[in-house]
Amino acid sequence: MTGPFRAGDRVQLTGHKGRRNTITLAAGGMFHTHRGTLSHDLLIGAPDGSVVTGSDGQRFLALKPLLTDYVMSMPRGAAIVYPKDAGQIIASADIALGQRVVEAGVGSGALTLWLLRAVGDTGTVHSIERRQEFADVAADNVAGFFEGRPDRWTLTTGDLSEVLDAGDPEVADRVVLDMLAPWETVPAVQRALAPGGVVIAYIATVPQLSRTVEALRDTGAFTEPLSTETMVRGWHVDGLAVRPDHRMVAHTGFLVTARRLADGAEAPRTSRRPAKTFADEDVELWTPGAIGEREKSPKRIRQVARQAAEIAEARRTADDDA
């Protein structure tokens, strides 16, 4: 949202060393550093892009966070889809204004924010999450960014296959899967996706990648799946000192993309030698721990939920005052 800073706004403060802090403005509030304080009142009413000075003389650049900034600093109950993958999902699945998108699971709501922005006011996003505590965090994160819960967004707690099988067929133009065992949902996705629609799965490990691709192939209802990963490397540019950064955002996940064929259609297949595929006895039980994900403790999830709720409430209060 454009315009001057208001109470309830999220503001990104950048100090002289490049350290960033994201705060929620409140009348009379104070931002504390180890060297001094900065009054929120200096920012309220100031234009976006202002530079303010704290009690210790330190200067801060104040900006309204971009969606990338918001996603990276918002409370997390579950691992998020990083911006580099979110952008690739939007492009690879060709998600655009007016489309009907189904998403599972919602996690902390990072990808949901990108999807809602992409479909605009004329599209819809239906997010399905199995865990209620994650759904609660995502709901508050979405409300905190959009200044309330968008009417075009539906959030359902439950199993994707059960939710889709209970509804009408061909209810989605795009289906986005971010879950442990996406191959188990392929029949339900096939039923829910309109002909020509796109399914895209965000997958963490090689065994998951293999099983998902084979499951899509076995149906005969999709085009040949395309498997990719995206890596981002920054560059240091200072005069003649131009070189790649020592660190880069490398593997975060694979993307598998395929399109729904019309009923009864059979796409031309590239001849290839049959290969051994994964069976149930070839892999361990699919749990977050089995693929190396670190489980959040119930205490940590409750803490994240409180943080997300406070941000959303501050935004709602600011809107009511306005």
Lateral arrangement of strands in the main beta sheet: 9-8-7-10-11-15-12
Radius of gyration: 22 Å
Distance between the termini: 14 Å
Report the β-strand fraction as a percent range: 15-25%
SSE-based structural type: alpha/beta
Overall pLDDT confidence: 90
Oligomer designation: single chain
* Silhouette: globular
One letter per element, helices H and strands E, the order comes to: EEEEEEHHEHEHEHEHEHEEEEH
Q: Main sheet, how many strands, which sense, barrel?
A: 7 strands, mixed
What descriptive keywords fit this protein?
single chain, 322 residues, alpha/beta, 7-stranded mixed beta sheet, 8 helices, 15 strands, 29% helix, globular
Nutshell version of this structure?
This protein is of the alpha/beta class and 322 residues long.
